[in-house]
Amino acid sequence: MGLGSLLNLGPRSEQWLTAVGITTYDELERLGSVQAYLRVREVFPAASANLLYALEGALLDVRWDLLPVELRDRLRHAAGR
Fold this sequence. Notes:
Number of strands: 0
CATH topology: DNA polymerase, domain 1
Order of helices and strands: HHHH
CATH class: Mainly Alpha
Mean pLDDT: 96
Number of helices: 4
Number of domains: 1
Oligomer: single chain
Low-confidence stretches: none
Radius of gyration: 11 Å
CATH superfamily: 5' to 3' exonuclease, C-terminal subdomain
CATH architecture: Orthogonal Bundle
Strand content: under 5%
Largest sheet: none
């Protein structure tokens, strides 16, 4: 399954993830949303926290904007944001 077919991930997200060597759901799952986000931020500093939420939502199959505030806070903290 291509990353672009996952909930919350569009062409730009898929492009960024591919550029940092994440090309499959399994790779994303193995790394987790925070580590995947940090890899993307190293190469694409313009990536916002919305990408972090989108990645977590993709793993949980939940729209990023429906993630609980507490979870978003934990993700930001884990990512050093």
